[in-house]
Serpentine Receptor, class H
Amino acid sequence: MSISVVDYLRIYYPKCETDNSFLASWQGLAYTSHSIQVFVLPIQIFTIWSIVKKTPDSMKSVKWQLFVVQFWCTLLDITVGFLTTPYIFLPSIAFAGVVLNVSLIYLFESRSSSIENNIFKLRRRCSKIIYYCWNFAASSIILFSLAHIPTNQEEAKQNLLESNPCPTPEFFSLPVLVWLTDQYWISITFSLMSPLILLNAAGNVSFHAICSIYYLYLAPSTVISIQTRQLQRRFFFGVVIQTLVPTVICGIPYIIISLASASDKITQGVTNFLVIVIGCHGFVQSITVILVHRAYRHQLKMFLLGLARKSLIPSCTLVLKMHCLQMEMSCRNMKKSSIYKKIFAENRVLLCEKVYSEAQIVVKKSFVIVVSFSFIIFVRVQDDFINAGIWNLIVPMNAFL
């Protein structure tokens, strides 16, 4: 393409019909990602804290495996939601979570190896080192494509305009990094490397999951007690759920964007939506971990009730003291007879019981109201973000292809 990018922007670009929705802009991507991350980061930190500090003795064997997965999922959310917020241009892109893949393999392998009669368990430390080095290397092969990033980015952007003549205005205003333009390496990356990474991760996870199912349900060991087998089955079920739910949440948008790309109906808004959903992966993982495992559910319940009591009980106590003071002042004006003292004592006991019961009701209702009101505010704010650009903030952001 002989015409420069500046001349293309001046001559041809005004004739283009671009996606001008708020979600398609960099503000829609950055503001939405940042606002979501502000809400979900405390939950992710609480989940990590619960795993490290509040894991019961019956779950000690899976404590650090859960921590590793949760740590990398949280780091993925922080990277996508805060640090980079990648603005990806059309038509397609491949996501490869190198460490995240290996952490999931580690989670399922440890569950499978904890079963005593599993003949496929990795028993020696040397075998485990070789196994994980191989998986890490297999998940990192896509990094070879980084060695073929075009050195002449201006020419690369010109070549990109041939296949995508009407990108969003951010293509011309932001410092865009064109990843690949060589058709050979594009085919190698998307047709060979990406499928190999996915097949390697899916194959290892499926193998360890099948081994666990076989030795826990079809051929259970007679050496261990029934209670231990029940715990192993419960932990395995929790691991499957906490892996499956975030994978499905992230997989559905990726399937949608792949089908839209194949039918040439993809838009920048859909691409940005995929990035936002990828940035929520760790949040979904955190919620799943808390809901699946009883110990963490109980810890969350105690934490929320503790917050409610700290904020509401002092005010109820103050009201109780004021009522008692009023009653004492009234009694001082009365005659000092035993009947009045008896009435005062009985009324104070009844008042304390009434205020305490009302305080419990207030705590429960306030918790429901706070959660519901927070959810409503969050939905309304997101609606405002999508419908109109109401913020005027300067947010640093990297743009990638």
